[in-house]
Amino acid sequence: LSVSDLVKEAFVKIREYDGRIGAYLTLNEEGAMAEAARLDDKLLTNESQGLLFGLPVGIKDNMVTEGLRTTCASQFLSNYDPIYDATVVTKLKQSETVMLGKLNMDEFAMGGSNENSSFHPVRNPWDLSRVPGGSSGGSAAAVAAGEAYFTLGSDTGGSIRQPASYCGVVGLKPTYGRISRYGLVAFASSLDQIGPITKNVEDSAYVLQAIAGHDPKDSTSADVEVPDYLSALTGEVAGLKIAVPKEYLEGIEPQVKAAVLEVLRVLEGLGAVWEEVSLPHTEYAVAAYYLLASSEASSNLSRFDGVRYGVRADNPGNLLDLYYDSRSQGFGPEVKRRIMLGTYALSSGYYDAYYLKAQKVRTLIKQDFDQTFEKFDVILGPTAPTTAFPLGSQIDDPLTMYLNDILTIPVSLAGVPALSVPCGFADGLPVGLQIIGKPFDESTILRVAHAYE
Ligand code: GLN
């Protein structure tokens, strides 16, 4: 099988399924075929091959790709062709993957169902009447449908893990700082992380290996050694200490809870031990997150002014109108809601009551995790309280939509790594297990997921 065959096959699948699923926003067919031909030539010589040689990939459309349209699923950037590659894209090129195209998402990564894309929604490959989750819904659906070998997503409050859970694939949100975000369009800078979405845990380890590491172009990327993730996949969990927060089993769909308890039984059979614990500040996480993430978003998105990037409103009367009209026309309703909420929370007179308070809550949540990890190796629970819900069922109710993230948001606030791995089905829909690890200990969560898988 040549790389060209592999890439051709991916485009055949995209043509066959994507009219119904809607995972892609931009295809890179010509570029991909040229790259595949180059890699096939290389196969003939005996040159050394990159770690991910020949694998066809898709990238969430909030990572910039030189010369390939990058929209963040927003009308604002519907005409934006970046002049450089994000560091993760450079690294994927160095590992000799083939870029198939850019994947649909909630506009500027704000959402949990992919219905906030300003182009079209994504549908769940397991049941086309249901959402794939979000905001990396295109990235998860593409892997589930075989429209890419693997993809990259971004996760601010759950956007890799929750769609991975709804689509029955593996999604990893690494430790904050593990992967460079240079070239990732910022949503909430103290939370955003890039990570792989793959069919299985071994692939997740491979992709993480290829994209992790310090990057001088991103001052928040950590100068921490990158271990050999593949050698971590030993199948061994004997003696492993697992904490199960009781807050993560409350208010969960009974079949989801049953699937997670079954995993604990399996892991126990392999020699792991588990204990119920409490992360007492869990109930404040969603409120704190929506204040902090929206505050940061309101600041980050001020760069979209109709002058520097993307679409500019026609015939503005003066400079202020240019900003006003471009932003009114460019941003969709959810993005505007967050900018308004964030601007309010940061305004003088309200800053102490909202933003500062939320920061203090964040510290308490981080301490819950720190204390638990003094005694345990991993924390385990469901990724989301339910399975994928029907399209349209929550879109008019932002608060219900926000509460879907109750199990992924605390992890994001604490900055620790977590992985969602499929752990069975409820009424024919995939259920995801969330495995949470110590800072920079992706190896252990990959090992546990691999042993279970
Ligand atoms: N659903 C969450 C939100 O809307 C998380 C999004 C994300 O992780 N990008 O903010």
Key structural traits:
453 residues, 11-stranded mixed sheet, 38% helix, 14% strand, binds glutamine
Describe the overall structure.
With 453 residues, the protein is an alpha/beta fold. The chain contains 14 helices and 11 strands. It has helices spanning 3-21, 29-44, 87-94, 137-144, 161-167, 201-211, 254-269, 285-300, 319-330, 333-346, 352-375, 398-403, 409-414, 442-452; strands spanning 24-27, 56-60, 98-103, 150-155, 170-173, 193-198, 241-245, 273-277, 378-382, 418-426, 429-437. An 11-stranded mixed sheet has the order 1-3-2-4-6-5-10-11-9-7-8, sandwiched between helices. It catalyses: L-glutamyl-tRNA(Gln) + L-glutamine + ATP + H2O = L-glutaminyl-tRNA(Gln) + L-glutamate + ADP + phosphate + H(+). Its EC number is 6.3.5.7. The active site is at residues 60, 135, 159.
The total count of strands amounts to: 11
Order of helices and strands: HEHEHEHEHEEHEHEHHHHEHHEEH
Which class of secondary structure composition applies to the elements?
alpha/beta
The level of helicity is 25-40%
Provide the fold topology.
Blueprint lengths: L2 H19 L2 E4 L1 H16 L11 E5 L26 H8 L3 E6 L33 H8 L5 E6 L5 H7 L2 E4 L19 E6 L2 H11 L29 E5 L8 H16 L3 E5 L7 H16 L18 H12 L2 H14 L5 H24 L2 E5 L15 H6 L5 H6 L3 E9 L2 E9 L4 H11 L1
Parallel strand pairs: 2-3, 2-4, 7-8, 7-9
Antiparallel strand pairs: 1-3, 4-6, 5-6, 5-10, 9-11, 10-11
Helix pairs in contact: 1-2, 4-5, 6-14, 8-10, 8-11
The structure holds glutamine.
Glutamine (GLN) binds next to loops.
Care to give the gist of this entry?
The chain is an alpha/beta fold and 453 residues long. 38% of the residues lie in helices and 14% in strands.
